[in-house]
Amino acid sequence: MSESEHTNTASGAAGPAGQGGHSPASRLQHLFEGHRLTPTQRRIAHCMVRRAADVPFLSSVELAELAGVSQPSVTRFAVALGFDGYPALRKHLREVAPTEPTTATKANEYQQAVEAEIANLRHLADLLADPAPVERAGRLLAASPTLPVIGLRAAASQAYGFSYFAAKVHPDVRLLDEGGTMLADRIDAAVRAGATTLLCFALPRHPREVVDALAHAKSAGLTVVTVADSAFAPVAKHSDLLLPAAVGTGLAFDTACAPMLLGRVLLEAMCDGLPQAQARLEEFDARAAERGLFVE
Questions:
Q1: In which domain of life is the source organism classified (predicted)?
Q2: Which of 4, 80, 147, 166 is most buried, judged by most C-beta within 10 A?
Q3: How much is the pTM?
């Protein structure tokens, strides 16, 4: 199978999640394999992965409140997974993933947000136990003569950060961080310049423009590599390779430490596929020194 023929599925994220790994989050993602989930059900699934240690001890009402859905939606979700109802699903989770619920502390909301991000990073570390998906993504990015990188709204900073560093080692990186009618034109221009792969950063809330842009990129023949907050994100169906990294939701605005770190991991994997990467970095450092670009 060629690189462009691979199709992502809801369960085909990265690493142990699709292989029955040993972490609670990995076991949950494995449970969702092969099921066609509605957007509401994907939201429940994403919430369960994020709170994997607690889910076996939550009532349907508590899970519904955490996911921001109705209690009947949780029941329908359990039935969609093949269980008689939510109690049967919870019983199954307790049997296959025995654990203790996380204990509440007196931490304030800011500390809780930090702890949640630490948990997201641990989950990312679990996924990276199998480096094959990231290594494959790195090869795809390195092999694309022109590399368009898209990230709109909340994901714009992730796309910019990746593009800033990638441009130091890749010959032609094109940042697409603004929507509008020109977005499809810029994707087409990248294809004409030789692009074979597009990298997308997709974070909630997911702009419709991003979904439409990825559909256009696929129709133009590009292989789409996506960093998203969940394997169940709306961009999944338009991604050839989706790498999940959860966002924190404990503050008024989402936090994205894990997606940022995953972006840096992808940079490392891309550099491994670019023979001239080290030489280009050394050349940049020499010129920066000559210009006095940075203070010591």
A1: Bacteria
A2: 147
A3: 0.71
Average pLDDT over residues 27-36: 77
**pLDDT value at residue 23:** 65
Strand-pairing partners, residue 9, are: none
Task: Give the other-Cβ count within 10 Å of 130's Cβ.
Answer: 16
Report all structural domains of the chain as residue ranges with CATH numbers, in order of start.
Answer: 20-101 (1.10.10.10), 131-290 (3.40.50.10490)
- For residue 72, what are the CA distances in angstroms to 30, 38, 40? 23, 14, 11
Burial of 282 (0-12, 13-18, 19+ CB in 10 A): exposed
